């Protein structure tokens, strides 16, 4: 396939994303004020609790089978490999640029986690729907693309709300210590607030204890373990790991790989097909909604922040050059070792996971912790602006590589 034709095909989905993002940005301005902070908050909750779970569950239920699951095992592994490579590169970047300590977690996270959710949900089906696409029949290709995107998103959610949440919280707490180095009470209270823990999570737990020689209660080892376990179970990050999208992914897996249940919900003769159809209709609202939110959040980036240009440029170089190139090496090695199937669309998806801009969930965590919101907006503004060109190039190049 000619390289110019590949470039045109790859440009179309990127332009679609860009136009919807611009629409969200315009709607967030004071002139329209349709996507202000409150509207974004409510719409984001709708996406988190309703739209995305319906989209992920339906996509996996429709396309995932027991045989398919065995074939796609490397896809979640590839997501984790890309996150590890990005984290290492992000750590090198903070050592070189030396940003404020409380921004280290933000920089590492932006280098590590990609926006695999709505970007893959838009790009993969859009490529399939282009005329003369290189990946086969549009409907089959689009269904597989949604399944790849759903599985990628489920793994990414677990990674972001466990490892990256811990990293961001750790450095956000460091910012509090820098502000109040001598006031332990203020530090404790601010840390509690910035950790976004509920009062229930900090409530005292009855523990087995003994009285020490100095008269103070001494908590037993079993008591300490119980206390730690209860804190983990009540933590906000754990609840986010078991987010509605993750639960929906599990339900979608169960429906897809269990033939009797699958025949009940999916298919023209399925007795409960109306339930699946209704959920699919709701899920279709997820992609445009989250993309509008991305555009609206970029408005903050236009107003600037304290993040240095060297940090922004470093993240752009990592996400748009180093990671896509490293992805080629990882996928080629996996292909050489026989770890992946030779399906071009599957290989293309594995490669594309390395070229996507940073994840929007990082901004959600920054907002929860009260640290790095404006800096994240600036990083996202420049990364998504650059991705308009870099993503088009990498899509075209990856298609040329696998076809």
Automatic annotation (TrEMBL):
It is a multi-pass membrane protein. InterPro entries: Mem_transp_PIN-like (IPR004776), PILS1/3/4/5/7 (IPR045033). It is found in: Endoplasmic reticulum membrane. It holds the Pfam family Mem_trans. Its main location: endoplasmic reticulum. It comes from the Eukaryota. The chain crosses the membrane at residues 6-27, 72-94, 106-127, 147-168, 241-261, 281-299, 311-333, 345-369, 381-401. Keywords: Auxin signaling pathway, Endoplasmic reticulum, Membrane, Transmembrane, Transmembrane helix, Transport. GO terms for cellular component: endoplasmic reticulum membrane. GO terms for biological process: auxin-activated signaling pathway; endoplasmic reticulum to cytosol auxin transport. Involved in cellular auxin homeostasis by regulating auxin metabolism. Regulates intracellular auxin accumulation at the endoplasmic reticulum and thus auxin availability for nuclear auxin signaling. Belongs to the auxin efflux carrier (TC 2.A.69.2) family. This is PIN-LIKES 1.
């Amino acid at each position: 396939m000619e390289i110019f034709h590949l470039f045109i095909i790859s440009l179309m989905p990127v332009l679609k994303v860009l136009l919807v993002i611009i629409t969200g940005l315009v709607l967030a301005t004071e002139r329209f004020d349709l996507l202000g902070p409150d509207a974004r908050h409510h719409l984001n909750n709708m996406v988190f609790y309703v739209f995305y779970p319906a989209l992920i569950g339906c996509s996996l239920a429709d396309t995932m089978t027991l045989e398919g699951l065995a074939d796609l095992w490397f896809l979640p592994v590839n997501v984790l490999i890309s996150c590890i490579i990005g984290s290492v590169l992000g750590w090198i970047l903070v050592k070189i640029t030396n940003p404020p300590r409380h921004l280290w977690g933000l920089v590492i996270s932006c280098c590590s986690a990609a926006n695999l959710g709505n970007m893959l949900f838009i790009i993969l089906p859009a490529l399939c729907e282009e005329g003369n696409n290189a990946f086969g029949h549009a409907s089959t290709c689009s269904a597989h693309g949604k399944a790849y995107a759903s599985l990628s998103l489920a793994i990414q959610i677990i990674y972001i709300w466990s490892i990256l949440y811990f990293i961001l919280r750790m450095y956000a707490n460091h910012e509090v210590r820098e502000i109040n180095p001598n006031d332990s009470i203020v530090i404790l209270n601010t840390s509690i607030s910035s950790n976004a823990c509920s009062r229930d999570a900090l409530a005292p737990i009855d523990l087995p204890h003994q009285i020490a020689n100095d008269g103070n209660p001494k908590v037993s080892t079993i008591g300490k373990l119980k206390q730690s376990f209860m804190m983990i179970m009540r933590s906000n990050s754990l609840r986010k790991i078991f987010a509605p999208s993750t639960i929906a992914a599990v339900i979608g897996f169960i429906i897809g790989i269990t033939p009797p249940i699958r025949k009940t919900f999916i298919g023209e003769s399925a007795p409960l097909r109306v339930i699946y159809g209704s959920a699919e209709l709701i899920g279709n609202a997820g992609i445009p909604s989250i993309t509008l939110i991305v555009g609206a959040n970029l408005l903050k980036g236009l107003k600037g922040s304290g993040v240095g240009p060297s940090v922004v440029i470093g993240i752009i170089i990592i996400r748009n050059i180093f990671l896509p190139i490293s992805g080629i090496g990882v996928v080629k090695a996996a292909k050489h070792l026989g770890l992946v199937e030779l399906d071009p669309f599957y290989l293309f998806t594995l490669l594309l996971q390395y070229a996507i801009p940073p994840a929007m969930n990082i901004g959600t965590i920054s907002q929860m912790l009260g640290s790095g919101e404006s800096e994240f907006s600036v990083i996202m503004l420049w990364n998504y602006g650059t991705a308009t060109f870099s993503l088009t190039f990498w899509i075209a190049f990856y298609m040329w590589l696998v076809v």
